[in-house]
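step=encode ok
step=design start
structure_in=
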């Protein structure tokens, strides 16, 4: 006689768990599931440096998600490091630009330093390719030299200002992934842009 009671209890527990899950889903909508897939870590650092270098914080978060899935110890096959996957040579160059004294390559694993360098670089690329997010992301992935070369090639750019075709499949996929993640971050973290817009901006210098 004890077994049927046990089964009934298990059914009630299962029912309550399913009801709780459904309630959470209905209250949060699909954002609840999206936030599991697209987390937002290091929000203070993103806001601080996105504001300082006048870059979109949601784009910064999207780049981090695609580059490293928010894992500060990430290393690529090309030796790009940290959250925003900065090459040591790029990190050293930017460290000199932003006055980061005694820079060492191991600092690229520090979220604070990595996000600062990555945001400066996104801001620098935006100054090079204003109002063209696709070119900014192409340069972040493939390098400024390649983007400039493609823009001069009529096979890839008819007007010299926009890319009609990107010859690197990796870069095409990268841009697609970042822009998709960007739209998701704007949707599920609407307070991020507001919070960053309220942060103090210290100005930028890309000379």
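sequence_out=
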């Amino acid at each position: 006689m004890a077994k049927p009671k046990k089964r009934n209890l298990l059914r009630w527990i299962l029912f309550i768990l399913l009801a709780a899950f459904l309630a959470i889903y209905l209250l949060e909508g699909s954002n609840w599931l999206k936030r599991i897939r697209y987390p937002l870590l290091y929000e203070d650092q993103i806001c601080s440096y996105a504001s300082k270098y006048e870059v979109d914080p949601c784009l910064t978060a999207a780049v981090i998600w695609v580059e490293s899935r928010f894992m500060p110890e990430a290393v690529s096959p090309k030796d790009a490091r940290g959250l925003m996957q900065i090459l040591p040579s790029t990190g050293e160059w930017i460290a000199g630009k932003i006055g980061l004294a005694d820079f060492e390559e191991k600092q690229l694993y520090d979220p604070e330093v990595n996000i600062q360098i990555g945001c400066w670089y996104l801001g620098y690329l935006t100054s090079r390719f204003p109002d063209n997010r696709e070119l900014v992301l192409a340069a972040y992935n493939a390098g400024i030299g390649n983007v400039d070369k493609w823009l001069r090639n009529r096979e890839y750019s008819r007007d010299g200002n926009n890319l009609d075709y990107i010859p690197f499949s990796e870069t095409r996929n990268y841009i697609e992934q970042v822009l998709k993640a960007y739209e998701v971050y704007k949707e599920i973290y609407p307070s991020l842009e507001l919070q960053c817009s309220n942060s103090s901006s210290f100005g930028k210098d890309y000379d």
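step=design ok
step=annotate ok -> Residues 41-197 form a domain with the Lysozyme fold (CATH 1.10.530.10).
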